[in-house]
Design goal:
With about 250 residues, this protein is α/β, with parallel strands linked by helices. The chain has a single domain, classed as Alpha-Beta Complex (2-enoyl-CoA Hydratase, Chain A, domain 1). About 50% of the residues lie in helices and about 15% in strands. It has eleven helices and nine strands. The strands form two sheets. Strands 1-2-3-5-7-9 form a six-stranded mixed sheet, sandwiched between helices. Strands 4-6-8 form a three-stranded parallel sheet. It is globular, with a radius of gyration of 17 Å. It starts with a strand and ends with a helix. About 45% of the residues are buried.
Length: about 250
């Protein structure tokens, strides 16, 4: 299967689904497409709630595409690539509807950021998390504000510093990243459907107001996340990072 991002609307529930054959990793175009779909559903009056999910059963999202990372040769290209993650997070943040994330597998790097940017995140017990950026010579600069907002400074530092170790789904729920945790995708999907049906029947104006209140204090993220993208874009050009990414690719 080739990579895709698609959306559908049914009974007031807008669902965005993304897929990439390399563990749902994210090339730049995929990120831009994902942000565009979230924005589209956010501005559609027929949509009352948005569900964000990926295809497959092993990985929710493996973060940045290593192939694209090692192809970056200048600051402008680096900024453009990492701005893709900024666009996704900001699209989820400013959408006047609740964004529900369905995490059916492991989340790495930018995938943790996407799960963190959701307003309510469902996951299964196999959905471990890892911020691996430092291990490849960069850092979770763009997704950091979203992750820290959800799990707090201490847990964010733990994920960032211990960059090669997985944290369990139970850990992620304890820290507030996951709202609910399930033993199977069937149980999770039933609960997602039940919550989304309730939200689709709720007052859209009240939900939009609540969304704004919940994200108070993040009004500077349009600028902040682009500044953070520039930091990552600079580091990805270093010889250290290029060598580290190539080593990771050889292990994969």
């Amino acid at each position: 299967m080739e990579a895709f991002v698609k959306s559908e609307i049914k009974n007031g529930i807008g669902t965005v689904t993304f897929f990439h054959p390399q563990s749902n990793s994210m090339p730049g175009q995929q990120l831009r497409n994902l942000a565009a779909e979230v924005e589209k559903l956010g501005s559609d009056n027929s949509v009352k709630v948005i569900v964000l999910q990926s295809e497959g059963d092993k990985a929710f999202c493996a973060g940045a595409s290593f192939d694209e990372l090692i192809s970056i040769k200048d600051l402008e290209t680096g900024l453009k690539f990492f701005s893709g993650f900024a666009a996704v997070i900001n699209a989820m943040r400013i959408a006047p509807k609740f964004v529900i994330a369905r995490v059916q597998g492991k989340a790495v790097g930018g995938g943790v950021g996407i799960a963190s940017a959701a307003d309510y995140t469902f996951a299964v017990t196999g959905s471990a998390v890892k911020l691996s950026e430092l291990a490849v010579g960069i850092g979770p600069f763009v997704v950091g504000p979203a992750v820290e907002r959800k799990v707090g400074k201490s847990a964010f530092c733990q994920l960032t510093i211990n960059a090669t170790e997985w944290q369990t789904a139970e850990w992620a729920k304890e820290k507030g990243l996951y709202s609910e945790l399930f033993a199977s995708t069937t149980e999770m999907d039933n609960s997602i459907a039940a919550l989304c049906s309730k939200l689709a029947a709720s007052n859209p104006e009240a939900m939009a107001m609540l969304k704004k209140v919940m994200w108070e204090g993040t009004e500077n993220w349009d600028k902040l996340l682009i500044e953070r993208a520039g930091m990552s874009g600079k580091l990805v050009l270093s010889e250290f990072t290029i060598n580290a990414i190539n080593k990771f690719k050889q292990k994969a």
